Amino acid sequence: MMINQLLSHRTIRKYKTTPVGEETILNILKAGCRASTTGNMQLYSIIITRDEEGKRALAPCHFNQPMVINAPLLLTFCADYNRFNKWCKLSNAEPGYDNFLSFVTAAIDALLAAQNVTIAAESEGLGVCYLGTTTYQAAKIIDILKLPNGVVPVTTLTIGWPDEYPEQVDRLPLKAIVHQEFYNDYTDDEISTAYQDKENRMDSMKFIDENNKETLAQVYTDIRYKKSDNVTFSNMLLEVLKKQGFMNQ
User: Fold this and answer.
1) Which of 91, 114, 125, 144 is deepest in the core (most CB within 10 A)?
2) Distance (Å, rounded) from C-alpha 191 to C-alpha 177?
3) Per residue in 17-48, pLDDT tens?
4) How is the chain split among helix, strand and coil, in percent rounded to 5?
5) Cα–Cα distance, 41 to 108 (Å, whole number)
6) Closest C-alpha among 131, 133, 198 to residue 208
7) Strand, helix or coil at 212?
8) Is residue 128 within 8 Å of 31, Cβ to Cβ?
9) What is the pLDDT of residue 245?
10) Residues 175, 209, 230, 37, CA torsion sign
C-alpha cells in the first residue's frame, strides 16, 4: 500500500554503482510532472546530472557530500518562469512575474514535483536524499547549470539503488503538529512533551555531548543552523533573486 511506503521513508546517502535504467528514470520523471501545480502552469524545470564531471562540478555547492558524486542521478529542481514568460510574449501576452510572490509560486511547484519524484523513485525501490544546500549555493549552481534569467534552483535530489538501510529519523508526534479547527498555541509543558522523545534519543544526546552544549536546541541554534549563517545565506539568496529577475517589483 502507498501509505506503508510513505511511512517507511528514510534518507539514503550510500548508493550502489548500478545505473538507473532509462525507462525507470522516464517513469519517475513523468510521475513528478503529474504533481499539483499553480494554475496548471508547471513553473519548474528539472536538470539531470549523470556525468562524472558535472557531478564533481556541483559537489562543492553541496559541501562535498559523498553521495553527490556516488549517486547515479543528481536532479536539480528549479523554480522556472523563463519558459512561461517566453510563451506569454510569443502569445502577445505581457507577463508580470518579476516579483517575490512569483518566485514563491514557482518554488512551491518545483518542490511538489520533487516530492512526487521522491515517492515514485521509492516505489521503484530506489533511494533518495534531499540536498538543502541548493539554496545556500544557488548563485554557483546557476553558473554551473547555465540557468537563464527567471530560473532559480530550489532543491536537489540524489537518486540511486540503496547500499544501506539506515534507521528512520525521528518525527514529532502528530499532536504536536496537527491543530483542530484553529491554531492552539503551545504551553511550555506541551512544548516540553512534544520534544521529549527527540531530546532523549541516543543520537541527540551524542550531538549534545560532541558539541559541548547543554541542550539539543542549542545544537541547532549555535552549531547547525546558527543566525549568522542564516543571515548570510538569506542575503545571498536575495541577491540571486534580484539577479534572476524576481525582485523587480
Assistant:
1) 114
2) 11
3) 999 999 999 999 999 999 999 999 999 999 99
4) 55, 10, 35
5) 12
6) 198
7) coil
8) no
9) 95
10) negative
